[in-house]
Design goal:
Elements: E1 6-9, E2 23-33, E3 61-66, E4 70-77, E5 84-95, H1 97-115, H2 135-142, E6 160-163, E7 174-177, E8 195-198
Antiparallel strand pairs: 1-2, 1-6, 2-5, 2-8, 3-4, 4-5, 7-8
The chain binds a DNA duplex through strand 3, strand 4, helix 1 and helix 2.
DNA sequence: GCAAAGATTTGCT
DNA sequence: GCAAATCTTTGCC
């Protein structure tokens, strides 16, 4: 179960002293995409240059660019040859909040600069629990880009990795819903309850909650 | 080689 | 509540 697991960005893995830029988040929202037969999945056209990593062994990161602006983090699941993956839609920030905020603002600042010179943006403050409340925001807060595709998330020495929740932490209450933003896939895929969230958690993606 | 649409977020009306 | 921003990938000519 990925819900409750930790997503960790650690610039200096293996170090005894925690790095000040170390970022930790607790996964509270995911979506499953099961392979070529799933018309909502990137694997629906078969194996391509973009999704090749999905056909590889599990535990590997698959990062794609959506709408030309946002990177989204997926975790490859199931065995080699099966193009299944889980999209990490939201995490609850636990540590390194300042770094997450800085990484987010840096991206938005770059976007504005590309559009043209304008005044100071002042970067309005976002609530702490919303720093990674959405697929694109998770990648932004953790500094994840397509360059991270193929990274082994289960390697304890990786700068980007997953860890299980502490054993003394109670398992979260899980709710199932239909997936978000895949209307193009048609039935039965749009109605499949393959989005999983921690019940009532405030860090689940915002607008998505209403749909 | 070109046109179309997308696993989103933000800001304005 | 709606539309823009933005670019990669896919599909067809």
């Amino acid at each position: 179960m990925l819900l409750g697991a930790r997503l960790i960005r650690d610039p200096d893995p293996g170090s005894v002293v925690a790095d000040p830029d170390r970022r930790v988040g607790r996964i509270v929202e995911v979506e499953a995409y099961i392979g070529e037969q799933d018309l909502a999945s990137h694997a629906r056209f078969g194996r391509t240059a973009r999704n090749a990593v999905m056909y590889g062994p599990p535990g590997i990161a698959y990062v794609y660019l959506v709408y030309g602006m946002y990177d989204c983090l997926n975790i490859v699941t199931e065995t080699e040859g099966s193009a299944a993956a889980v999209l990490v839609r939201a995490v609850e920030p636990l540590a390194g909040l300042a770094s997450m905020r800085a990484a987010r603002q840096q991206l938005t600042a770059e976007r504005r600069r590309a559009r043209g010179p304008d005044g100071v943006t002042a970067g309005r403050g976002v609530a702490d629990h919303r720093l990674a409340s959405g697929p694109g925001l998770v990648a932004a807060a953790f500094g994840i880009t397509r360059a991270d595709t193929g990274r082994d998330l289960c390697d304890p020495m990786s700068t980007l990795r997953l860890e299980a929740a502490p054993p003394d932490e109670p398992a979260p209450a899980v709710a199932e819903t239909r997936r978000i933003g895949i209307d193009y896939a048609g039935e039965p895929w749009t109605s499949r309850p393959w989005r999983f969230v921690v019940t009532g958690h405030r860090s689940v993606s915002g607008p998505a909650r209403l749909r």
